[in-house]
């Protein structure tokens, strides 16, 4: 490589980094500023900034509320991460690394449940596990007891529902890691006489450790800042967590107690910042785990022998619990005028009124459009931004570290808090997008930058430098390397990342619930309103129809990304 | 535009005077202007499937070319949404309703004074003396019971009955706004007096009432589904609507029953001021009131009876304690604090 060429390249890289830096800084820094400001100053009802004060924090420390909620938040997040990892992780290993039957069911479950809005999913579980739901009904019928087996409005219920909610995601992310990691070590271990279990324990898990740790952290953080489950499952049972306290401060008081909410948010932000520092230490040592090299390979599955049928049963159980039962109970609810226990006498009440109401209302069509456009636009913007940032960061280009930090920073925002922060910003600055679809788009892009980064970054981590160096030696500049080497190799990661963000954005509630105006309602917001104002059965009908649409979209993209993956890794 | 502003200011000055002239009826000029605006945005606390849709459909049929857009949320969220929009200088709503939505918005100077001609047919307690609101419909908050779980004879009939240990953990209520625990507390304090009321609440707090973060309608639905036998502080007309569809549910006139008025107002900076006023006229007209009645809601206009007549106190022969929006606005924080302290 000539020195002149190297100079030009470094120059162009610096420009890319600078422009990206400005865009990302404009997106992610103002919300932080507004949060700190909101927590440390009096804000008058007209929105003017008043005097400096520690009052919001002092009020926060009054009583045991903060401590109780914080402890609950931690228990909830840890429990959910463990449940999600157990369900999703075991499934990922079985599907990607063994010769178990019925694998297609696992994909089906994942695709459909990833397209299901949380609100709908949580609703289904509330129907299922509710006091008169089939689970407790069956328990009473079997034991003759008068009581319930499980009280869903409890910490146990919250952990179970949240864990189930995240297990398809864990499955999706972990199976990508397992699929692309180099099986040479495993094969070497097997040839040296190690048992299947030993190989898993000493090779597979260790190789996947950075990915697993990152995943646990991701689920932990998402549960920690989660809103749907604490609000719908926890609040009725008086199990408060930090996010529902923020929600109550913002929603239950007129005008909203933004000071208290901001102070709460800053506390959350600090906790998550510590976790992120921990995360960075993990990913720093991740270089040792490069496994996609210039050599071609294809993982060979373990032969479980007779054990493959046990693995098959696990896949079927997952299919039943995560997919079939929730949808069946929704189907039951959707043909009833009001929810009733599963009994013969309720069959007499069957009606198609709910479906008629959904299909005949043009309002729902508008919701579908808003939701799909928002999801597609935010996924595209995020993946374009993070692809380049991921490359700059992993290859230690100038500014790469800083860009990575900034793009990962929005992880510190609970959705509900980011919603408030973005709202405050656009109420204060004279850009007239409040109440439109644009403000939601901006919030989504901020929100999903870190998720895009996880795909861009970990995808990059697995591509060894030697491929780019070879291109560089042959005279390719940075942009050419990015376009002709990095992009094609990253295509599977980018496609899965896009799909992932699209699906998350199509079902998120915590952001649009605060930002949506009359013309920019989304499906999730409408569902939340329907649930809380007692149109649960109409919600079930709309939810099933929506799940149908999303399943078509999700499976299309999913198979697309699988195909591009197969193309790269030489099937 | 300027002319309208001047007119509104003038009418404001007139309204502030001792004489409150009723505004012009929905005349042709206003209808034409409303049609030019093409749509009206309604921030509502009413249940969409029961009343908002039929009301909107009837309005759109009467005034073709004016589309009704609605956003449903509870009173607190609706008020906050409008406050925020006003801060951004971008009020999206034209008209809003609710039992406790109006006072904070009036305080923030966002509500327009408007008294439709039909207001003359309403008694004084159902309209604001200053002209900021008129009651669209009435709510009576009573216990609701699941009739397959509780026999009519066993159902609690007095406040004392609720203290029976057999109801421990079997009662449910909403956690926010007035159709809720705080509202129940308010009614107890207003009717029993502070001292006796607090003593009663102290005993009631031992009953482990379940709080739900959901509307009173949702609370009642959990009773319909059989999750709990008794809901407190739900709307009595909701039980009638559900029972008509075959749900095992009924209400109890536990006296004195708390009565709330759901007010209708238009916003000062409404983007469609004429269409907003036109919709308000329509909701408060005899025609609109009959739509409430048909949907089994309780129309505020005295000359329009409820579909099930005994839902209203006069025909149902029960005593109601009418709590105005202003009273709610001043006392609700206190009721909420008691609720948070004793019942959460």
Structure description:
The complex is a heterodimer of chains A (571) and B (344). Chain A is mainly alpha-helical. Chain A has helices spanning 3-40, 55-61, 65-97, 103-115, 118-129, 134-143, 155-180, 184-191, 196-224, 228-234, 242-251, 258-284, 307-334, 344-347, 353-360, 362-394, 400-408, 415-428, 437-461, 465-473, 478-507, 512-515, 523-532, 536-569; strands spanning 41-43, 49-52. Chain A has two domains: 1-42 and 353-571, Orthogonal Bundle (MetI-like fold), CATH 1.10.3720.10; 56-289 and 305-351, MetI-like fold. Chain A has 24 helices and two strands. In chain A, strands 1-2 form a two-stranded antiparallel ribbon. In chain A, a hairpin with a 5-residue loop joins β1 and β2. Mean pLDDT of chain A is 81; it is low at 1-5 and 564-571. Chain B folds into two domains: 28-138 and 261-312, 3-Layer(aba) Sandwich (D-Maltodextrin-Binding Protein, domain 2), CATH 3.40.190.10; 139-258 and 329-343, Periplasmic binding protein-like II (D-Maltodextrin-Binding Protein, domain 2). In chain B, α3 (48-62) links the parallel β1 (39-44) and β2. The interface between A and B is large, with 46 and 51 residues.
Layout of strands and helices, then pairs:
The complex is a heterodimer of chains A (571) and B (344).
Chain A: H1 3-40, E1 41-43, E2 49-52, H2 55-61, H3 65-97, H4 103-115, H5 118-129, H6 134-143, H7 155-180, H8 184-191, H9 196-224, H10 228-234, H11 242-251, H12 258-284, H13 307-334, H14 344-347, H15 353-360, H16 362-394, H17 400-408, H18 415-428, H19 437-461, H20 465-473, H21 478-507, H22 512-515, H23 523-532, H24 536-569
Antiparallel strand pairs in A: 1-2
Helix pairs in contact in A: 1-12, 1-16, 1-17, 1-18, 2-12, 3-7, 3-9, 3-13, 4-7, 4-13, 4-24, 5-7, 5-10, 5-13, 5-23, 7-9, 7-10, 8-9, 9-12, 11-12, 13-24, 15-24, 16-17, 16-19, 16-21, 18-19, 19-21, 20-21, 21-24, 23-24
Chain B: H1 2-16, H2 28-37, E1 39-44, H3 48-62, E2 67-72, H4 75-87, E3 95-98, H5 102-107, E4 111-112, E5 134-146, E6 171-174, H6 181-192, H7 194-204, E7 210-212, H8 216-224, E8 230-235, H9 236-244, E9 249-251, E10 257-267, H10 273-284, H11 286-294, E11 298-299, H12 313-316, E12 320-323, H13 325-343
Parallel strand pairs in B: 1-2, 1-3, 6-7, 6-8, 10-12
Antiparallel strand pairs in B: 3-10, 4-10, 5-8, 5-9, 5-10, 5-11
